[in-house]
Amino acid sequence: MSDDIPAMSFEDAMKELEATVGKLETGEATLEESIALYERGAKLRAHCEQRLRQAEERVEKITLSADGAPTGTTPAEGL
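The structure assignment produced for this chain is given below.
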């Protein structure tokens, strides 16, 4: 089941992570189910963090001319 995580979009992974956390918070899962949910949640969290890092690397800063008109883009600094 964790083989599907790399193909997930950020939004899908985040939704599943939220649902997983919700299941853990209810305390209704057995110990074994809780461990499996926790492990999947950790993988989903790592996937979301990776997707966010990739998005940050793609963010560009818009450069403006003296009159405020966009002139192009340059890579964002410090990401």
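Interim note for the steering committee: The CA atoms of residues 5 and 14 lie 11 Å apart. The beta strands are 60-64, 70-75.
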